[in-house]
Fold this protein.
Amino acid sequence: MTTLTTTPDGSAAPRSAPPASLAPAGRRPRQGGTVLAVPALVWYLVFMVGPLLAIFVIAALHWPGMLQPVSFAGLDNARVVLDDPVFWDAVRNTAVQLAVALPVMIVCAFMLGYYVAQRPPGHRVVRYLLFIPGLISTPAKAMVFYAALSPDGLLNGGLESIGLGSLADAWLASPSTALACLIALDIWAGIGFTAVLFAARLGSVPDELGEAAQLDGAGHWRTMWSVHFPVVRDYVGVVTMLQFLWTLFGSAQHVLLLTQGGPGTSSTTLSFLVYQKAFIAADLGYSQTVGVLLFLAGLVGLLTIRRVFRQNY
């Protein structure tokens, strides 16, 4: 469409009008995001939802081994599990593990992360040192603890060298200390990486907040817990969820490598019980029934952590 305009000499000259919008007013062009998300959705359904449903299905079967005939068991597996004292020992051990490892790890990691976030001399080296447990494979970590806690290991040797040989013990083979050793390994393996995560988040907190608190007479301890902690409270909740899941579901590998659940059932956890019944006792129905209960415990734990830290998602 063209219009006529008047030039300085009085003649008319055509002028092109701006092109009309190709899309109707009020409508936006369609995005192709849905199509791009299809592969991720298919992957999630096949490899996440599928195994989760399989756990519930196998929990209702009597399946005494991979190549053995399968029959429907209904709720019989649940009755067997709930009547088994080994299961309740595993529940107690897992509860103790979470009640000790999770608060100690989160509190100490937050304090260590706050220290690193203050950029003290050598803080870059400290960051790298904190990453070391995360760079070591799980079997290597287990070997380090085995070398330290064996009857002729570093811990007993150190106690004897300072005249406390009477306190020496077979730490991994004693019913009173085996679980504590596994908890110590969980804390050592997770505290460094968690501290680095906290340091990265605390580094984004404006320096003016801490400076204002110190001008008002607050020391580092009060500044850490009264100023910085409320600012990163949501992030603390996220990290707590991650460590809760790792401790609940990932402790089986440490138990397998160091104590095999013993002596007796003193260090058997729920996640190790799932492995033991599936791959050693060849009782898949029992194993996945414990897996269902473990899944429900994890779900309840996550909801509780969200409520405690007032997560908004």
